[in-house]
Amino acid sequence: LMLAAVVGLFMGVGLVFFLEYLDNTISTPEEVTDYLKVPYLGPVPAFSQNGSVDGVPAELISIHSPKSTASEAYRGLRTNLLFSSTGQKPVVIMVTSAGPLEGKTLTSSNLAVTLARSHQPVLLIDGDMRRPRVHKVFQTNHSKGLSGILVGKDAPGEAIVQTAIKGLHLLPVGHIPPDPSELIGSKAMKNFIASLKTKFKFIVIDTPPVTAVTDAAALSQFVDGIIMVSRIGTMPRQVIRDSLEQLRAVQTKILGVVLNGVGSGKGSYYYSQYYYSYYGEDRGKRRRSTAV
Predict the structure, then answer these.
(1) Which of 31, 139, 152, 201 is the residue whose CA sits 20 to 30 A from 163?
(2) CB count, 10 Å around CB of 193?
(3) How far is residue 47's CA from residue 195's CA, in Å, rounded to a whole number?
(4) How is the chain split among helix, strand and coil, in percent rounded to 5?
(5) pTM of the model
(6) pLDDT digits (tens, 9 = 90+) for 188-223
């Protein structure tokens, strides 16, 4: 029995290490800095994105739950973005990911909200001309938008709309064009972004995944920096590194990587997120449960 217990213990430990060895995804800050060789901008905990809260889409947690752990994470992303880099601060920020469903639209939307909350004029552009989602998140019309501006059909003053957040403006895609890559990498796009820099303090652009299409690489030459969003345990690290190398090939600056959908359980490095909740909306609940 003792021999079986010892053998079982060693086999269990060995299985854990073997499964860890087989996991080739990015899951820790150390893997971001050591393997990807880029700055780590912070974690964003997983939260429900279904339905709405007080009439606000659940995705916009920075609006309907400003004291939540996720909202604090987005504020931390804003701080890291503005104060971690030396020299001139980025004005035009592109948010992308290596693959689909990693949370790039979620990140760009909430980042734009937190930037606007710092009393700065901010423009959020939906640059995903294939599967646009920003207008759905903010529940706005997208009959006029970026594509119409670039072809001379729409005026910027008609396409750019003011959101419910003071200082935050939104530019939807508009009609989906037949040639998104050529349009988004055109000289018209370059001139349009240059004109926006005189009107807005920050411009956040949501773009398609790097590995899916060439849109993100085409647009990257017009921005000041790129944020790569990676969902924990989803995309192989080699694919993420290849995506970063593809963006570096066009001489663009990688601002860093955001780890999305992380856990906050005790025993993990994400447990530090507990302290955000302690000073946020969960504090009252914790006190009540303690009293009971």
Answers:
(1) 152
(2) 18
(3) 36
(4) 45, 15, 40
(5) 0.84
(6) 999 999 999 999 999 999 999 999 889 999 999 999
